[in-house]
Write the structure tokens for this entry.
Amino acid sequence: MNRKHYHITLVIALVMALSVIPGAIFADSASAAETISSDLAAPKLINHAASASTIKNTWNTVKNAKGYEVFRSTKIDGTYKRVKTIKSPKTVSWTDKKLKESKFYFYKVRAYRYSGNRKLYGAYSAIQGAAPTEHPNWEYSISNKSEKTKKVSIKLTNKSRHSMVFLPEGLYVNNNTAFKKWKKLGNEEWKDMTDSQLKKLGLTLIKGKKVTVKPGKTAKLTYKSGTAVKYTKYGRIISEFRYNGGTYGVFHSYKYGTSIWAY
């Protein structure tokens, strides 16, 4: 089982507030006055911050569509209002402007076409949320399954304006006791320690590949260790990424959420 988190960086080096997004339980249907057309597929929507006051929404072209409607809410399970009607099937993006910085907005999109004088609608896309910001901002999911493994991974969607470039080296922190020991180290001190020194602290060096996650895109960050770790939902994966000229440290955890700090 994975848990998905929406994350917005407001203050560097503090644990951020998280909203748990439990999936498709908020599916919305058209009203009785609307006619659903089975030949219009649900669009696949992605979005991300385009500035401190705008969010860019992008979706795929839907076959047979004559246009699209974009709906917005400030709560994932709230009331969605139509905020844009697009009258061309070739236009598959729209940027929402004059938004409040760091506030989350949630969107869904559907296609439409005409049959005579009737307007027919396709199914809604899955709901996607984002917040206008210049800071790093992302959504991630991580397993809560306990296992002994040489491989740990995070599924991450970049909701920021700029690309997030994750560096190949990181740490796996076994538990909260090990995390407290890690916090006493300097940002770079652990990089000069041997595997055995790290192990005594409950830390394990992990390595992956350099991964660039572009705005609105999703990537799986996979890290491997030389020896198997006891992965649990209480562990933390510590890594580094570059964003808009800066370098940041970050940890991800199922139990403890995520936190970010600037180097």
Remarks:
- The chain has two domains: 31-130, 136-262.
